[in-house]
Amino acid sequence: MSTIIGAETTAKVVTRHRGKMIAYWTVTLLLAISITLSGIGQLMRYGGNVDLVTDIGFPLYITNILGSWKLLGVVAIIVPGFPRLKEWAYAGTFFLMTGAALSHAFANDYGDYGFHLILPLFYAALNIASWTLRPKSRKMCKEVVKLSAAPSYNQ
Questions:
Q1: Is this model's pTM higher than 0.70 or not?
Q2: 64-85 b/e with 16+ CB inside 10 Å = b?
Q3: CA torsion 15→17→19→23, rounded to 10°?
């Protein structure tokens, strides 16, 4: 009887872990594809990328900088290892996307139905979701030290 209960408990843990892993990769790949396409579009100055940048007062060369940062950030997030670099890439992507939304808001350039605000904020939300769902192997700290386990020097 105890073996069956143990098997059920193990099955629940494995299923929960697998579901979180599927959610992580789904969100992360959606983020990576979106940011990659955006970065390539900026580097190639494809479509409305030129107007998108110049209409809010930025110089055109900023597309080279932003496009490069986006592609490098995606590589850092996707490639295994380098946990500190991943943290910086997640932070950079968050600042890049929220900065884009704020830049458009301050320039009163909301786009059709607020598209210039909604899209970068959606990417920022995907970025947060990917960062939150990432497995332990992609985090900087693999163990959390409890404060109660620290030695007491007040004795």
A1: yes
A2: eebbebbbebbebbeeeeeeee
A3: 180
pLDDT tens track of the chain, all 155 residues?
A: 555 555 555 545 555 688 899 999 999 999 999 999 999 999 999 988 899 999 899 999 999 999 999 999 999 999 988 999 999 999 999 999 999 999 999 999 988 888 999 999 999 999 999 999 988 877 877 544 445 555 555 55
Q: Residue 147 gets which letter from DSSP?
A: G
DSSP-derived secondary structure letter, 143? S
Cα Dmax for the chain? 71
